[in-house]
Amino acid sequence: xxxxKVKVKWGKxxxxxVEVDTDEIPMVFKAQLFALTGxxxxxxxxxxxxxxxxxxxxxxxxxxDGLMMLMxxxxxxxxxxxxxxxxxxxxxxxxxxxxxxxxxxxGLTNLGNTCYMNATVQCLRTVPExxxxxxxxxxxxxxxxxxxxxxSITLGLYDLYDRMxxxxxxxxxxxxxxxxHLAFPRFAEKSEQGVYMQQDAxxxxxxxxxxxxxKLPAFKDxxxxxxxxxxxxxxxxDQYFGGTLDVVLKCNEADSELETYSKESFLQxxxxxxQDVKYMHSGLKLRMQETITKNSPSLNRDAxxxxxxxxxxxxxxxxxxxxxFFYKEKESINAKIxxxxxxxxxLDVYDLCSTELQQKLTxxxxxxxxxxDKKLLEAQDIKKSKRDRKSVV
Length: 393
Fold this sequence. Notes:
By secondary structure, the protein is an alpha+beta fold.
């Protein structure tokens, strides 16, 4: 049989004038293709008009000059190798293995309706300065004959965080729960079935923070721009969680009565929930202007006042309580509001601040706005370039 020159298409490549001697077995032709492509003959699949070329005989394949043949196959180095370590899927992992792989914080066991305490503990654990303050307290602590509730809770919280730092497994917070029950017996109340009754997480947060407020001293940072201001704080909680409100009281029933000005400290702001409130920010604004009843010195009786509050100091960590319980007088019970309240991941309370604080915040707000505007323009440019490439194609 004669000698032919054919074309061979392999992927995106085409080899022209490949010589085929049909007097030789097809394996010789495949050896030529191996020299051109690097694909071993046993990994080659050579086809012509639906027929596959065998290794030892040409069969019904008829060749002619310029004929196009198709070759499929990949080089050995292009073929994925079997992994040395066996692949493990997430579905096959235990809870502890999954937490370790995803670098999740260790969980706390629910010891029977104790989720209120677990949530409070996990929330406070995210504050690095608090963790450092607890370590300092434990290091400097000297046991007396009697240990107060505030000391017990502070040490119990440190001990629990220390255990959580050393593992990714679930931890039963039994020690802290027992201390909490001794300090505040209402949290130890049980139902008729002998199960701990449900409690309010905000009440737990308030009590624990109040205990920490008594025992954790404020940080003295000489390098801080607020070092002079920080010296006025005696407690770590006031320093990092405490804020200040400028309060104005105006009597609605006596225009001649002068407005009164005062300052109030807070450790949390309340988001009041009503039928009109759909967002957390609007619930906070309701707290900033409200009507109260108090004794009027000019009228010598109780009168209605408009109380207007503005934030004059923002804490490093702003705690917000959703006021979800209200008292039903007819039924004489506390009812829970289940309404969904939306909030963004970034809270801007600039409009809730006093004029003086707004002036302090403006320079940094301007810088943040410039950064956000730059990111927005970059995202728009990327989106535009993608549309341009699609239109060209």
